[in-house]
Structure formats: C-alpha cells, structure tokens
C-alpha cells in the first residue's frame, strides 16, 4: 500500500457501513458563473484525479447563472495545493469563478424540529421575504434550504427549516403573514408529508366559487335574505342546522327544473380541475363534503372524477321543491364524520388525510385531518386551521404537498392537457 493510500481519510465503501468520521478533513468547492452544459461533469472530472469522495452536492441555476457546491474529502497529504490550483485553472478556462474552503467533517447537523415553510405571494416582495426569514430566526429556526415551487400565478417558495418545532414556527409566522401580504403555511417535515393519500374538500366557496343555496334562492327571489343567513352561519354566529332549515324553507315551491339551471350556473374555483387531476395522477383519492345539496355534488362527482361526495338532499314532491331536506344533515360534525368514513373506505389513516375548507362548519373536519387547510377562509377558521391559503387558486394546495408548478405542467403536457384547463 503506498503512502497516499495510507494517509487518505476513511471513505465510504472501505468497509461495510463505513462513513467519514466527523472530524475528517474536507474541502468545500464552490463554482459560480454563467451556466452551460458540462460544468458539473467537468468539475468532478477535475476532482477525480485526486481520488476524493463526494460527501454533499448542491446546485442551483437562476436566470442562467450557476452556483455549484461540492463537499469532498481532502486529497492525499501534500496534494491539496495542487488540487486548488487545478480547480482554479479549470474554472478560469470555463470563464467561471471558484472558491475552496478547508474544514472538517460533514455539514453541521440540522437541529431538531424540521418543517417545510411554504410562502405564497402576489407578488412576493423582498420586504416580506426579509420579514419571514427574520421571524424564522427569531423562533429559533435555521433556514437550511430555499426552493421555488412556482413562479405564477403566484410566487411560491419553500423554506426547509430546522431547529424549531412546527407549532412554534406557525405561531410566530401566522400573525405576521397577512400584514405582510403573503400566505405562510408550516408543514412538519418527514415521510408523513408524502404519505397523505386522501384529500377531502368543502364545496361552496372552495371547490366552486358560489354558494349553491344562493343560486337556488336567486330563482326563488329571496337571494339577499338567504345570503345574509348563509354569511352568519359561515362566521359561526348561527347554528348551521337551524340556518339550513330556515334557508331551504324559502325555496318551497320551486320547480325541479331549477336544478339543471343551477348546475349550469356553478363556477369552478380557478385551479380546481388542476388540483384534482394532479392528485389523481399521484394515486390520491379525492372527495367532497358539503352543507349544500346532492343535486349539485353528485354532478360534480361525475364531472371531476371524484371518489367520494356527500351533501344534504333537497326533498322533491310532484316536481317541486318542498322546502325541506331529507336524511341526516351534513353539518360541522357531519363533515368530520364523513371524512372518517371516506378514510375508512379508502383504507387511509386519518393522519394521511388532507381537508380543505373555508367556513366554521368545516372546522371539525379540518382539525380531524392530518393536515387542515383553510382556503380563503373566515378569520375564525384561519386561526384554528393548521395552515391557511388566501389566494384565489385552489391548486396552490399542491405546493403544501411539495409539488411544483413545473411538475404539474410537465404531466399535463405529457397527457395533452391544454394549459389552464
């Protein structure tokens, strides 16, 4: 065995399970400049001549500028100077800049408590980004990595944070987010985030832009009266079941043909189709629960390819609405019950479910799910939910699951789905 092999640090593969000791000499090699094909291969081809091992790599390309960082074991004794000169020479030949820093060991360990902090802005300003970063630091967190999830229709970035528990981060960030004009969602890191396999959503003002009972009320000439009661119920000021019966009574006598008219008037929330289509591609099961009516949710289930749908049912007799509903009422407790039923039918534990809603009658469902998302919700709901999104695009929920806009568009293009469909 020659001197070089005797002096080099222990490397992975020298013996089963071997890893570099924490104090092994290392070099952090940083390359930056104009991106072009072959830079990554060229750097490691240059390093290969010195028989070093790769411990970590990070590479980012922004507007055609590359930053490539490689953490490698130090070369054989006496060869570091030559390695530095060779790397700098290669970088200059590529019209790049190089920086090499000596040290020991791997990157410092990440602290306990790891989270994904997703920040959404329209736009995302430097001021709001600075504020969010400062709040993370103030809560004891360290930003380990930042990654862009989407550049339109909102800017979405994800901070990988360690050193602070998710609940602490959420408490620190949530009050400031609205004041800064951004949405901030904190989700615990780990395998659990990737394992959520059932998404259940509210319908009115979530999957669709409308309140269905108000659409019916417009045909009955009592829209303003119904809208006032609906708003009070969604704020939690009225008992939902009582308000439902009071509003439905005003529809008495409407011809059943109004159902088809209301179905035609329903407007999907921007991003709803994209969200559902993407979730289905990933193997998720998707359902809706509504304090509205099966006369609409059954149609949505068929149109959107949903796995589950549940709502109240308007009673019809002699071709007219009777002003009553039939069967169990889907209220606040009913939505949580249906989430559990859907999860059981899907074979998915509650910890692997996501619930999305906007009103007070969604709170039990949001709290029962593994991840509860308040979507353009009332203040009471935003404060109680795990996380809140306040932009008018339902597919932003995908970003909370770590799915990027580029991944969605690539899948759509592969399937021939038109942009924006």
Automatic annotation (TrEMBL):
<keyword id="KW-0028">Amino-acid biosynthesis</keyword>
<dbReference type="InterPro" id="IPR045865">
    <property type="entry name" value="ACT-like_dom_sf"/>
</dbReference>
<dbReference type="GO" id="GO:0016787">
    <property type="term" value="F:hydrolase activity"/>
</dbReference>
<feature type="region of interest" description="Disordered">
    <location>
        <begin position="1"/>
        <end position="21"/>
    </location>
</feature>
<keyword id="KW-0479">Metal-binding</keyword>
<dbReference type="InterPro" id="IPR050582">
    <property type="entry name" value="HAD-like_SerB"/>
</dbReference>
<protein>
    <recommendedName>
        <fullName>phosphoserine phosphatase</fullName>
        <ecNumber>3.1.3.3</ecNumber>
    </recommendedName>
</protein>
<keyword id="KW-0718">Serine biosynthesis</keyword>
<dbReference type="InterPro" id="IPR036412">
    <property type="entry name" value="HAD-like_sf"/>
</dbReference>
<dbReference type="Pfam" id="PF12710">
    <property type="entry name" value="HAD"/>
</dbReference>
<keyword id="KW-0460">Magnesium</keyword>
<dbReference type="Pfam" id="PF13740">
    <property type="entry name" value="ACT_6"/>
</dbReference>
<dbReference type="InterPro" id="IPR023214">
    <property type="entry name" value="HAD_sf"/>
</dbReference>
<keyword id="KW-0378">Hydrolase</keyword>
<comment type="similarity">
    <text>Belongs to the HAD-like hydrolase superfamily. SerB family.</text>
</comment>
<comment type="pathway">
    <text>Amino-acid biosynthesis; L-serine biosynthesis; L-serine from 3-phospho-D-glycerate: step 3/3.</text>
</comment>
<dbReference type="Pfam" id="PF21086">
    <property type="entry name" value="ACT_PSP_2"/>
</dbReference>
<dbReference type="InterPro" id="IPR004469">
    <property type="entry name" value="PSP"/>
</dbReference>
<feature type="domain" description="Phosphoserine phosphatase ACT">
    <location>
        <begin position="116"/>
        <end position="186"/>
    </location>
</feature>
<dbReference type="InterPro" id="IPR049148">
    <property type="entry name" value="PSP_ACT"/>
</dbReference>
